[in-house]
Amino acid sequence: MSPNSDSIFTQELSRRTALKALFGAASAAVLFGLPVRAHAAEASQETTDKLNAAQAQLDEVQAQLDSIANEYAALANKNAQTLNDIEGVQGQIDDTQEQIDTKKSELKKKRNELSDRVAASYKSGGTNILSLLLASGSFEELVANAHYVEKINKSDRDAIEDIQTIQQELDTQKSELESQKADLEKLKDQQSAQMQDMQAKQQEVQTVLNGLSDDVKELMAQRDSEILAAAQAEEAAKKAAAAAAAANKNNSYSGGSNSGGGSYAPGTPQQNAGSGKQQAVVNACYSTPSPGQNWCAAWVTNVFRNAGVGYFGGNACDMFNAWCYSSDRSALQVGMIVADSSHSGTGMPGLIYGHVGIYVGGGIVMSNEGAITSRSLDSFIGFYGTGSGVRWGWLGGVVLS
Question: Which residues, other chains included, contact 224 with Cβ-Cβ below 8 Å and sequence gap of 6+?
Fold first, then answer.
């Protein structure tokens, strides 16, 4: 999750790459320095077959892990689009509610005007106003009763009917938007559950991959040991043959001697090793140390705990899905977490877990990238927003402002 340091996954991939290279060149490495012979020393067929099988399994599981990471990244992008859709629909709902409130205000004003007009007519001696008021069960009944049309301005009545019609249409539109938002929220929950399942599957496959990598290393060491033993046996046999030949020659002829043999130095494969609460969070950002590489969410958890806000666990993806709801910069406040659920900038861990930081104000986001760093919001979005996009919100739903 850190662009400034190698991730666990990157180290693992580099180690496996080194193993593959070592696998292809180990024979030459082990026999480096040996005298040239017609038949190079070899490991047993059983060990060679086991090593080839283990290497094939490792490659297969690695491909499976890569596939999971790519599927997760694709789903995270779909989830980001769903979040955008939810945000857009909520905006439409808010706009529609404002229009409804406006129409209600207009309707109330128009009713008051008509009421004042009826009251004025009564005071001026109108003969039918009192009976009109006593006979009407509601104001709407009063307006709709054709018997009293002479007491109501027709244009005003039409205006009221238009306002009521528009209000009804807006109410219907709002209901449809709320239903659409509910469907999107359901889709978001389904996508989040799928991503959690993928994370669990990724961890299972990674465990299998780690075991296979260990198997390959052990088999490579066994193979190299067998090659070295075979080479030493060949060299010893050659020296014994040379000594026997020299003894026979000395027995047949006088004088002189002949010696043979050689030396070698076999190589050994190397192992690769705002408010008071807002200010408290900002202060904790500067005083809380990094818990280590690839632990961005753990650092955020420690910051909020050190600030006395509370404990909120989970990885960066969990925090993004649960608490980051907005991409509106005007809604960003000091103390909010800023996160994504998947990005390509830091390889496989970024695709699977995303990254999370804390907005400390002044356009700056602090996060654990191996070391605690401060980035501009634009820089943070530019780097981590390459996949699911970057959003923000109050961690744990606790509003600090």
Answer: 26, 29, 30, 43, 268, 269
Tens digit of each residue's pLDDT (9 = 90 or more) over 215-240: 777 877 787 777 777 777 777 888 88
Give the least confident one: 17-21, 308-312, 335-339, 343-347.
17-21
Looking at residue 339, what DSSP letter applies?
A: E
Distance, CA of 360 to CA of 121 (rounded, Å): 65
Q: Do 375 and 3 form a contact (C-beta atoms < 8 A)?
A: no
> Rounded to an integer, what distance in angstroms lies between the CA atom of residue 276 and that of residue 401?
8
Phi-psi region of 25 (alpha: psi -120 to 50; beta: other; left: phi over 0): alpha
User: pTM value?
Assistant: 0.46
d(CA 95, CA 296) in angstroms, rounded, equals 37
% helix / strand / coil in the chain, to the nearest 5?
Answer: 70, 5, 25
- Determine the Cα–Cα distance for residues 213 and 271; give it in Å rounded to an integer: 13
State the burial class of residue 350 (Cβ atoms within 10 Å of its Cβ: 0-12, 13-18, 19+): buried
For the residues 121-147, what does the mean pLDDT come to?
54
Q: Per-residue pLDDT for 261 more than 60?
A: no
Question: Which residues 6+ apart lie within 8 Å of 391 measured at CB?
Answer: 83, 320, 324, 325, 326, 327, 338, 339, 340
User: What are the pLDDT digits (tens) for 37-64?
Assistant: 334 567 788 888 888 887 788 788 888 7
d(CA 320, CA 385): 12
Strand partners of residue 355: 340
Q: Which token pair is 356?
A: 């999370």
| 8-state DSSP, 340 | E
